[in-house]
């Protein structure tokens, strides 16, 4: 199955800044090189305790990182649906109705407004609660219905992150692979460096070696040098 990425309008749902790059960094570079439109709907951001020397990354710092990554990938638009400490790492306390409505129709980058051809979201089996509820809300927002009344993207994918495997019921083997060049893999890693508050040395799930190794592994699984892997939820040919 070949996709002409130049014809795609891609909407990526990211629970937090960096998830879109960890899961789709190679695809974003490949698609933009082909001429696609790429939009990022972030769900939330806030001050975050971390393992850095300072012990904290601030929301303002994260916004600055997003702007740098947006310029790097040349995104066509990005937005935060639920910004602030009230929501950050607490999306599981927000009613599914509110999350789904933001994704479906109330956000500036909603499915109703943007009418994307491709939607990519986190996988439900992530250990992170914000990832889980984002995945479930996207699943609800993209429910089957009358196509004359609601927009239905042709392609719906769930992206993976190395950390998602930290579950006894981790996601099954992926069934959709996007071939990447070495330059596209390196672009993904370079973009993660722009998320300076979130990058770590190896061994860590967000280290350079982890990202490069996962691209090599998924490439081997699909008989190419490098790839990103996804779980396909819908494909309308």
UniProtKB/TrEMBL annotation:
<dbReference type="GO" id="GO:0016811">
    <property type="term" value="F:hydrolase activity, acting on carbon-nitrogen (but not peptide) bonds, in linear amides"/>
</dbReference>
<dbReference type="InterPro" id="IPR003737">
    <property type="entry name" value="GlcNAc_PI_deacetylase-related"/>
</dbReference>
<protein>
    <submittedName>
        <fullName>LmbE family protein</fullName>
    </submittedName>
</protein>
<keyword id="KW-0862">Zinc</keyword>
<dbReference type="InterPro" id="IPR024078">
    <property type="entry name" value="LmbE-like_dom_sf"/>
</dbReference>
<dbReference type="GO" id="GO:0016137">
    <property type="term" value="P:glycoside metabolic process"/>
</dbReference>
<dbReference type="Pfam" id="PF02585">
    <property type="entry name" value="PIG-L"/>
</dbReference>
């Amino acid at each position: 199955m070949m996709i002409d990425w130049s014809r795609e309008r891609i909407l990526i749902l990211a629970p937090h800044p960096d998830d879109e790059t960890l899961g789709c960094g190679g695809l974003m570079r490949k698609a933009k090189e082909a001429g696609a439109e790429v939009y990022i709907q972030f769900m939330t951001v806030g001050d975050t305790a971390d393992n850095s020397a300072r012990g904290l990354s601030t929301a303002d710092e994260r916004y600055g990182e997003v702007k740098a990554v947006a310029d790097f990938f040349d995104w066509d638009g990005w937005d935060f649906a639920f910004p602030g400490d009230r929501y950050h790492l607490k999306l599981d306390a927000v009613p599914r109705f509110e999350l789904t409505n933001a994704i479906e129709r109330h956000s500036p980058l909603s499915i109703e407004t943007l009418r994307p051809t491709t939607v990519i979201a986190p996988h439900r089996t992530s250990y992170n609660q914000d990832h889980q509820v984002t995945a479930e809300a996207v699943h609800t927002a993209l429910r089957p219905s009358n196509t004359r009344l609601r927009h239905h993207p042709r392609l719906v994918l769930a992206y993976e992150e190395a950390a998602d495997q930290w579950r006894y019921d981790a996601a099954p083997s992926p069934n959709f692979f996007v071939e990447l060049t070495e330059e596209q893999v390196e672009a993904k890693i370079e973009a993660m460096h722009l998320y300076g508050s979130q990058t770590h040395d190896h061994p860590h799930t967000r280290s350079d070696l982890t990202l490069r190794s996962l691209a090599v592994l998924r490439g081997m699984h699909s008989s190419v040098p490098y790839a990103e892997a996804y779980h396909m939820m819908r494909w309308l040919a």
